[in-house]
Design brief:
alpha/beta, 6-stranded parallel sheet, 9 helices, 33% helix
Length: 319
């Protein structure tokens, strides 16, 4: 699809504003509503649980935090739990990051919620490692939610939205230091762009995938999924990005994150139809009672958050 230079100029401005401001993070503690969910099954306390199927289970990855390989396609439909069972499981903390770079004088106060200074990001990852957290993949989370498969002790999922270049240049070395694997939710329109905000290119996305990180979809151009209505809309924003990322990585793309964290119940079947197994919102809403896999909660790790604040917010927000 060809676009003129004015389109790219306008788009760069929109993406910068939308990806930083639209997610509505405040840098404040997340929702602390209590739930009655059952304890998470981990490798240390439920290794022999009867419903932890070998084809879907995970193993403790020791101190490295490396997520084990899971094949969701190996899980029979008959073994997938109903919505109430999925919602009742203990929630796994899921963190959402955007830009990993030091603040600039031109960064607004609100933008700094989405821009994590490099030293702060290092502190976040060190806290997770020192606290015994193990990074898991979306496939592992899917297996746990759908079958009760065993997770490593103290599981956490690390997610990065939009595909900003600093995720590769600044975040990846820190992830490598601690052996953490993450998932990256990519706006395909921005792949390789070098405007006001720089984005990862195909080679870098392929490298992440080859190193065991998960490449996932985040629409074509950061559209609010609540506003999609026509078959063409869903093709452009859900189908085509999935196909493009699969072409780049040579692997299935099974997971999706909503731009701005926004969704509506009517859109969830459309996400399912496009072959996604899970879809991720932000902390403002609970999981959809009919389709929880399409409305999994995350929190944005705020740029003002110290490692101590992050730890407290993780405990407060996920039950």
């Amino acid at each position: 699809m060809k676009r003129n230079p004015l389109f790219w100029s306008v788009l760069s401005t929109v993406l910068f504003a939308g990806s930083l401001i639209g997610c509505q993070s405040t840098g404040k503690p997340a929702d602390t509503t209590t739930t009655t969910e059952a304890p998470v099954k981990t490798a240390s306390n439920e290794a022999t649980a009867a419903d932890a199927k070998p084809s879907a289970s995970t193993t403790d990855s020791s101190a490295t935090g490396t997520s084990a390989a899971v094949d969701p396609a190996a899980i029979p439909a008959s073994k997938i739990a109903d919505a109430a069972t999925i919602i009742a499981r203990k929630q796994v903390p899921i963190l959402c990051y955007h830009q990993i770079r030091d603040w600039k004088g031109t960064d607004s106060k609100s933008a700094k919620d989405y821009i994590i200074p490099i030293a702060t990001f290092k502190d976040h990852m060190k806290m997770l490692a020192d606290s015994g957290y193990h990074a898991i993949s979306p496939d592992q989370l899917y297996a746990y939610l759908t079958t009760g498969a065993t997770l490593p002790s103290k599981p956490v999922m690390l997610t990065f939205d939009d595909g900003d270049l600093t995720q590769y240049t600044n975040a990846l070395p820190v992830l490598d230091q601690y052996g953490f694997k993450a998932s990256f939710y990519i706006m395909t329109v921005a792949i390789g762009r070098r405007g006001k905000q720089h984005y990862m290119d195909k080679t870098q996305l392929k490298d992440l995938s080859d190193k065991g990180h998960v490449i996932a979809a985040h629409t074509w151009d950061h559209q609010n999924v609540k506003k999609l209505s026509t078959p063409e809309d869903f093709k452009t924003q859900l189908e085509e990005p999935k196909a493009k990322l699969e072409e780049i990585t040579g692997k299935p793309v099974r997971h999706f994150a909503y731009p701005f964290g926004l969704w509506k119940p009517e859109s969830l079947p459309e996400v399912h139809k496009r072959g996604y197994l899970t879809a991720y919102q932000l902390a403002e809403k609970k999981m959809d009672p009919s389709d929880p896999l399409m409305s999994i909660r995350r929190i944005i790790a705020g740029g003002y958050w110290s490692a101590k604040t992050l730890s407290g917010n993780m405990r407060a927000s996920f039950h």
